[in-house]
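Rather than argue in generalities, we have chosen a single entry, letters for residues, whole numbers for local backbone shapes, without further comment.
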Amino acid sequence: MPWNPDKLERLEDQRREFLIRALAAGLFATGTSAALMRAAHGAGKVPRELPPGKSIYEIKGTATVDGARANLDTQVRPNSLLETERNSRMIFAVGKDAFILRSNSRLQLSGNQLVNTLRVVTGRVLSVFGQSEHRIVTTTASIGIRGTGIYVESEPERSYVCTCYGVVDLEAANDTTSREAITSLHHDAPRYITAGGPLGQRIQPAPFINHTDTELMLIEELVGRVPPFAFSGSGYTSPRRDY
């Protein structure tokens, strides 16, 4: 059976909710955490904070970094170009920022010692960021972010943006009158940003699609954090916490 690149997107709700409730109950800091994470991810590999000198947690299929085929020892730098082929995925971190890059995606990072801008040329990426300010640019949108979990899809005529938690400023790339500030606790305000349409109306409500809380927990773990919902139960109001 061929590997399914979107397996994490379709994890059973029961398995995902079990982990969230266990995290909220404080089990994450106990020896139970390994079993919980295996249960949540359906595999024997338990996500942990990446050690110094390591950038990539997992590669499925074929991915390149700066034009060279990537492996688990490849370094991702703040100005690297990352690409994935069909049926591929790469999970990685740079500093205190962590990402899942989906298949058929092209992502250009920009920065000196830290990432400050991401250009999603095409494809899909789930990201969690530290407290420093960042910007994501897609085909149709510019997104200012700070201390945020965010999922982005970039297509020629439309972008999808879900602010999973945190604060963002959205602006249509070719219409500065289409702007919106979003503060989200739990995927509260997904949006489409279109290339065309009436001025001032190019940001539209969208459904919640193609990413999960389990994935957010995974990549926050890679940079030594726990997402807000791990401590808030159903209320989802607590900030992230470093270990």
